[in-house]
């Protein structure tokens, strides 16, 4: 009996010791990544106020220069709370939640098709009283959660073409198709690109993925040609100066803003293009106002922050405790990085105009809250990285 009691005490002691080690590990987050995120968030709040004040002052039913500023602060607080919550939740718990989250998200995407609110000519939102919710912003990260779960569970299938690469792309394609039916080609493309990156990171054969690229490009071009407004965006991109007051207007104003900024900018708050020249300057083209007010130096600083975040996110993925955490981290950082690249490319005239906001900087409650919440998951993965293990 004494021997059994001694073994029991020893077992409880070891259990308490393990628990203490876990608590110590959970305190160690990547503070450099957190600081970079908060810096971008602060820059975003400042630039939303600067770029939107004139527009809001003269906007019908608003007439208040602080309107978008206070809304952005409100959503930033909500997003930070979401980040703190997800940062505190063990990311392995999402394995149990993911099937339900997938069903809810698919349901919301279907609801948008039949009962979505028309905002600025696009039906992509669900109205919740005075608030609006964009399910496609949630769908980007739900695809990440679902693919991470499936690739981790079906470990041996990833090397196969039909059961691996095609299967996972088809899963992402279900979400992408529902988003495409909202006539949101940009988010559709982001979902598929993120899926492509995750499948590659998961260990798929490069030859399998390369063989699908021509098909993907052909599908993209087909989707552009079947919609006249998309085709106009493509032709205006190829020759923006042919119609400076029509389809190319927004891009031209963006180029004017960037050109006016020069090296050091015209000064914070001194943009001229935001004075009703640039349509909704606080949204997708906020980077142009940053270039005008803060100059090339300001733009490079923001680009460097995104590069730093991408590097830190990749480092967290590599050091993740397991394959599931690795895939989650890769997916989250891919969403943020791809969006940032596309936004900067559009604003600088490097690709056709499309509606992709700049993560953490452009105005938008749904996007901001989900981006910060996803970053919280990334920070939780960093808390449990391999380098934190104690012997």
Automatic annotation (TrEMBL):
One of its GO terms (biological process) is cell wall organization. The keyword Cell wall biogenesis/degradation applies. GO terms for molecular function: lipid-linked peptidoglycan transporter activity; peptidoglycan glycosyltransferase activity. It catalyses: [GlcNAc-(1->4)-Mur2Ac(oyl-L-Ala-gamma-D-Glu-L-Lys-D-Ala-D-Ala)](n)-di-trans,octa-cis-undecaprenyl diphosphate + beta-D-GlcNAc-(1->4)-Mur2Ac(oyl-L-Ala-gamma-D-Glu-L-Lys-D-Ala-D-Ala)-di-trans,octa-cis-undecaprenyl diphosphate = [GlcNAc-(1->4)-Mur2Ac(oyl-L-Ala-gamma-D-Glu-L-Lys-D-Ala-D-Ala)](n+1)-di-trans,octa-cis-undecaprenyl diphosphate + di-trans,octa-cis-undecaprenyl diphosphate + H(+). It is an enzyme of class 2 (transferase). Pfam families: FTSW_RODA_SPOVE (PF01098). Keywords: Cell cycle, Cell division, Cell membrane, Cell shape, Cell wall biogenesis/degradation, Glycosyltransferase, Membrane, Peptidoglycan synthesis, Transferase, Transmembrane, Transmembrane helix. Pathway: Cell wall biogenesis; peptidoglycan biosynthesis. Signal peptide: none annotated. The chain crosses the membrane at residues 29-49, 73-93, 100-119, 131-149, 161-179, 185-202, 209-226, 285-311, 323-348, 360-381. It is a multi-pass membrane protein. InterPro entries: FtsW, FtsW/RodA, SpoVE. It is found in: Cell membrane. One of its GO terms (cellular component) is plasma membrane. Its EC number is 2.4.99.28. Belongs to the SEDS family. FtsW subfamily. Peptidoglycan polymerase that is essential for cell division. This is Probable peptidoglycan glycosyltransferase FtsW. It comes from Clostridium sartagoforme AAU1.
